[in-house]
Every structure is written in C-alpha cells, then in structure tokens.
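Q: What residues go here?
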C-alpha cells in the first residue's frame, strides 16, 4: 500500500507475519489425548433407570418417545406465532412443579414479556431462571455455572459467537452455535431445547446440518388463526418418527386433545353427498378424518382440480382411475377434495375414501354416515392392503361406527373385529355395491 490513510506518509507500511492461532486439538496436545483415549465395550455401558424425564404434558411425552432423554438436544420449529414459545414455557411450568432446575434463555423477548406470558399460563410453583442474552460465550458460562436440568434457547437464529465474523442467523453462526450447545448437552448431561425459525417453505432456517446434529426434530404445525395445533416428530433418535400430538390453543395456553378423532369429526354434516370418513395412521396413533369432495360442471375449457390436505397429483391419479375403470365422465367437471379439520395426509390408505367421496358427489347420493372406508387404490383399479388394520378398525368401533369397508386382502388377516361389521372390497368396480 503506497500512502498511509492515517498520517499520509508514503511507503511507511511494513509487512508483519501473523502467527496462526493454535487450536485446542492440534500438535502434541492432540497426540497426548489420543494416547490416553480408551474405547469402551458395549456391554460395559450402563443404562440409567432415570434416563427419561416426564414433562407432565402427555402429548409432548408421546411425541418425544416417552419423555425427555437427559443429555439430548431437541429442535422445535414452526411458523411465527404458532405457539412454540408458549409450549416450551408451559413445559417449564409443569417441570417446575417437580422441582426441576430450569433456565430459559431468550434472545427475542425481554424478561417482562416472558413474565406476561407466564402469568397467562398460570402460577409457577418454583422460580424459573431467565436470561436475556444473545452472546453464546455468556450463555455457555451461565450454563456451566448453574448446571440446570433443562435449558431453553429461544431462538438459535439470534445467538452469535464473537469468534465468527458473520451476522447472527447466518449459516456459520447457526452451525457454530449448535455445535457448542451439543457439547454442553452431552458433556454436562443436561437437556437443551432449541427454538428454530422456519423459512417460507416451512423448513427450519439455516444449514441442513442443524437437523443432523440434534437428537430430535419437532415441527409445530397448524394455522395460527385456527385453534388446533399439531406437534410432529420428523426425527427422533430415542423414539418413533411421525408421531403427532394434538393441542388446542386457548386463552390460558395450549390444552391437550385426548381424542383427536372425535375432535376432527366434530361438526360433520348429515345427509350431504361427498362426505366420507376414513382412518389414517400417524405414527402408532389411528386418527379418523372426514374426506370431502365436490364435483360440479365446469364453466371453463379446462376443468379445475383442487386438493387441500392431500397430494394434488394423487387426486388427479384417482380421478383418472375412475374415468378408465368406471367410465365416469370427469373431464368436463371441476373437482375439489378437502381433508376436513386441517390435517395434512399423504398416506395411501385414504385413496379409497377419496374415490368414494368423488363418486358420492358426482352421483349426488349420501354415503352411510356410520361407515368408515380406507384402502389403497392402484392404477388398475384394485384395492390394495394397508398396514395396522386392526388398530384402525378398533378406533372406528370406539367412536361408534357400525361398518368398516377395508381391502379384501386385509380381511383375511384380520384377527378380531367384535362389535363392528367389516366387509372387504377387491376393486373400485365393487365400491358402488357397498356405499349405495
């Protein structure tokens, strides 16, 4: 550089080499640590009986696989205003009643705002330690000093480390922050819940490695203008994936929905065409949902097709099967398919219910309201088997349904079906005989 911008002197800059910073795992120190490291046999690893800690919220415990695993790292994602902070603060309230040491770290709200939400949820029997901080070095020091059982980080996108030059929420900051939190969780044996923002596509913002590093990924879904909420596990190293918990948002916080099937069928119309009840499996839980279809003559050259709550391409495929196998003229009709209750289902087991709902609306007749229908439909019109048929039938019987239409293949393997009439369907050509 020719002229100094400070003193305006020429040729006064001198090159000075900077010694590279020595990392903790470099050189002789890493060699000594490698010499002292000893592997452990699998049979020598002890499993503690208190490895899981119940939160007191049954739906949350179900999704987590039976409670909180000590030393785990849990990521909770969801749309803005969906209730992520409310759920975690409500969990803190239940854990505080059991004298569990808690630390709530917020990078988005002040202590007064958190107190206002806590007052709405109810009285805390034990004091909850709170900290408003975004500097991860300060957060790490506080966690190491107090060593709480559970730590809440709200949110990971607001945390930053001074050693990383990029802005908070960037790929480098999120990756570095998650790595430090993972070391704290595993090293100190504490459970850390991380709140993550989502993008407009509905996935957690930041690098994909964030979801790989954590032990459990939970998504809080639903329309924030509606009362229901769905907590879904898409990754769980300590339990089943695709489990869901159903909550209802009220003025005093989130309330568990013990029977989601009854909740989803609430307000079902009587005597209307195009309405069919089906059963979908969410993890190990059977949920009855109402499948609605509306088929009417189109006023355009190209008919409209709309699917809400299920795959749009799957609906087009099933309508093509009806045109080919049953000779239904749907090319001049608009078709709208909806899963009532706001559920999002992609399971093939609801194919037969969609087919029956389309036929019912097209021919304008009512399907027996005491009949439940489920099964997968193939391109040749055959009705294929579905999994966990006994759980589906028992759920239908528990809610008072009198008849169940299932694939013929499943009828042969069904062990027991007391109190409900079960009939098998082999092809879509047989559907009209059973639903009229």
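A:
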């Amino acid at each position: 550089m020719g002229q100094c911008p400070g003193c305006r002197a020429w040729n006064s800059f001198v090159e000075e080499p900077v010694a590279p910073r020595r990392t903790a795992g470099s050189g002789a120190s890493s060699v000594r640590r490698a010499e002292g490291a000893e592997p452990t046999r699998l049979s020598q690893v002890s499993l503690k009986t208190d490895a899981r800690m119940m939160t007191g919220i049954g739906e949350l415990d179900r999704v987590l696989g039976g409670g909180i695993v000590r030393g785990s790292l849990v990521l909770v994602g969801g749309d803005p205003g969906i209730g992520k902070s409310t759920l975690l603060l409500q969990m803190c309230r239940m854990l505080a009643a059991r004298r569990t040491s808690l630390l709530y770290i917020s990078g988005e709200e002040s202590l007064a705002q958190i107190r206002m939400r806590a007052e709405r949820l109810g009285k805390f029997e034990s004091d909850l330690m709170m900290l408003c901080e975004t500097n991860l070095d300060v957060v790490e020091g506080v966690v190491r000093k107090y060593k709480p059982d559970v730590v809440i980080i709200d949110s990971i996108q607001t945390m930053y480390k001074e050693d990383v030059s990029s802005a908070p929420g960037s790929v480098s900051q999120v990756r570095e922050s998650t790595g430090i939190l993972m070391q704290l969780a595993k090293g100190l044996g504490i459970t850390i819940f991380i709140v993550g923002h989502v993008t407009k596509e509905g996935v957690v913002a930041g690098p994909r490695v964030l979801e790989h590093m954590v032990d459990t990924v939970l998504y809080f879904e639903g329309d924030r203008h509606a009362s229901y909420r769905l907590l879904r596990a898409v990754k769980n190293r300590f339990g089943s994936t695709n489990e869901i918990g159903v909550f209802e948002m009220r003025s005093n916080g989130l309330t568990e929905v013990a029977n989601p099937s009854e909740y989803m069928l609430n307000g079902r119309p009587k005597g209307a065409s195009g309405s069919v009840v089906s059963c979908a499996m969410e993890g190990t839980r059977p949920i009855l949902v109402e499948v609605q279809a509306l088929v009417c003559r189109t006023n355009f050259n190209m008919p409209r097709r709309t699917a809400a709550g299920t795959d749009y391409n799957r609906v087009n495929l099933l309508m093509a099967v009806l045109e080919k196998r049953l000779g239904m003229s749907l090319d001049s009709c608009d078709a709208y398919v909806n899963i009532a209750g706001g559920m999002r289902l992609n399971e093939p087991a609801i194919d037969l219910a969609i087919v029956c709902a389309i036929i019912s609306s097209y021919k304008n007749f009512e399907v027996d309201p005491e009949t439940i229908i489920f099964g997968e439909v193939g391109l040749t019109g055959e009705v294929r088997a579905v999994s966990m048929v006994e759980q589906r039938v028992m759920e239908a019987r528990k809610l008072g349904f009198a008849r169940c239409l299932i694939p013929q293949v499943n009828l042969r393997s069904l062990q027991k079906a007391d109190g409900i009439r079960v009939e098998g369907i082999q092809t879509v050509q047989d559907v009209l005989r059973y639903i009229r």
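A: Context that may help when evaluating the design: The longest strand covers residues 285-297. The chain is about 30% helix and 25% strand.
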